[in-house]
Structures are given as C-alpha cells and as structure tokens.
Amino acid sequence: MAEEKLKIKALVVDDEPDVLSLLEVLLTSYGYSVITASDGQQALEKARVEHPDIILLDVMLPKLDGYKVARMLKFDENFKHIPIIMLTAKVTDRDKEMGIETGADIYLTKPFEAENLLSAIERALQKYKKNHDH
C-alpha cells in the first residue's frame, strides 16, 4: 500500500506557514509526495507545472482565493480531473456551497482531525480512479 502512495503527488496550498508545514509532515509521513504553495497564483502555477494527483486548497489566500483557483482548474480540460479538497476556516453553509459550486470535491473545515483528512484524500482519489479507469 505504501509503495502505491509514493506515486501520489499532493499540492498543498495555504498562506499560513504552520498549517503548510503540518500538512506537509502529515502527508509525507503517509508516503505522499508533497508540493506546497502559499498563495492562489502560486497554486495555479504549480498545479500547471507539477500536475498533482490531488490538491488541498485553503479558501482565504493572497492574490487569488481558493474559489477562483478551483474554478480556473476545473474549467481547464487538462486539470479538471484533479480532485480538490478545500480545507478552510470558512464554516457557513454558504461557504461550503461556494466551495462545491466552484469545484471542490470535498469541503473540510479547520481545525481538522488528521484521520478525517487522510480518509477524505483516500475517498477523493478513489472517486477519481473509479471515474477514470476505462
């Protein structure tokens, strides 16, 4: 199982360095390859260059917010297949609706439990795999 995960590349986007490093350590310890970005513009650039398998995306970001980043990626034929997990402090139903409308596959609120995040990543990757196995 761990060997299979080594191939999985996660792009983690958050403007808080503590959150970024926490997520990087957590995902790396579970065998994921991790790339980070600290603003929306950087997130788009890294997604386009690195072609991650999954994106963990904060909503409140400098330059471009997470909703715009998700929308831009989901409207692009080359990137619309990448599952996006929004990981944010924005907790209202409207925020959640916006996240789903703009392309988030899963919307999680901070603070999050490591187990919940890891199972959300697994679910998103499974859903993607099922939809793209021909």
From TrEMBL:
Gene3D superfamilies: 3.40.50.2300. The modification 4-aspartylphosphate is found at residue 58. Keywords: DNA-binding, Phosphoprotein, Transcription, Transcription regulation, Two-component regulatory system. SMART domains: REC. Residues 9-125 form the Response regulatory domain. One of its GO terms (molecular function) is DNA binding. GO terms for biological process: phosphorelay signal transduction system. The keyword Phosphoprotein applies. It comes from the Bacteria. PANTHER family: RESPONSE REGULATORY DOMAIN-CONTAINING PROTEIN, STRESS RESPONSE REGULATOR PROTEIN 1. This is Response regulatory domain-containing protein. The lineage of its organism: Bacteria, Bacillati, Saganbacteria.
